[in-house]
Design a protein that fits this description.
Blueprint (H helix, E strand, L loop, with lengths): L2 H21 L1 E5 L2 E9 L5 E10 L5 E8 L2 E11 L5 E5 L5 E2 L3 E5 L5 E7 L8 E8 L5 E8 L18
Parallel strand pairs: 2-11
Antiparallel strand pairs: 1-2, 2-3, 3-8, 3-9, 4-7, 4-10, 5-6, 5-9, 10-11
Length: 165
């Protein structure tokens, strides 16, 4: 391989790597990027969305509300230690703040977006659109893929009255 061909090949590989890096993100805009957003497949009343949100906006971003057309409501939930030592989930009071220049992780057993009052069964492979509204800036629209997942059946805080998810 001559130097000219080697240089072209390197340039093409570099461009391909940049293109693939962009494919890993399902939503981005105004300094917010979402990586690997997914929703747990569910036939019942509620499920959860997970993924990572990177905030490079130059300021902390506070989530005001979350919407989707597949559920009646979406809440921000956290996991806490219950009185008996087990982990239970509850709605996060005041909503999540995404610190600037950090990654905010939504994961099973941790913080997550809870979709309550599902309009239909969510099956693996389906894509769910979720809109995150902020106190500041434009909304973030996320396209999350529905996946089969056996975990994530933590009980709710007793005062919530939602039951298991």
């Amino acid at each position: 391989m001559n130097k000219k061909t080697f240089a072209r090949t390197g340039a093409l590989l570099g461009a391909a790597a940049l293109a693939l890096t962009g494919c890993a993100s399902a939503a981005s805009g105004d300094g917010l990027t979402v990586t690997d957003p997914w929703v747990r497949a569910e036939a019942g009343e509620m499920t959860a969305m997970f993924g990572e949100i990177v905030n490079d906006t130059g300021e902390d971003m506070h989530i005001a509300s979350i919407e989707t057309d597949v559920a009646a409501t979406v809440e921000m939930h956290e996991m806490i230690m219950g009185d008996d030592g087990s982990m239970i989930m509850q709605e996060y009071e005041g909503g999540f703040t995404l610190p600037d220049d950090e990654t905010f992780t939504l994961d099973p057993g941790g913080n997550h977006f809870m979709l309550i009052g599902l309009q239909h069964e969510l099956k693996s492979g389906e894509v769910v659109t979720i809109t995150v509204n902020f106190d500041e800036g434009d909304p973030l629209v996320i396209e999350a893929t529905v996946k089969d997942f056996e975990g994530g059946n933590e009980p709710y805080h007793e005062d919530e009255g939602h039951g298991d998810h």
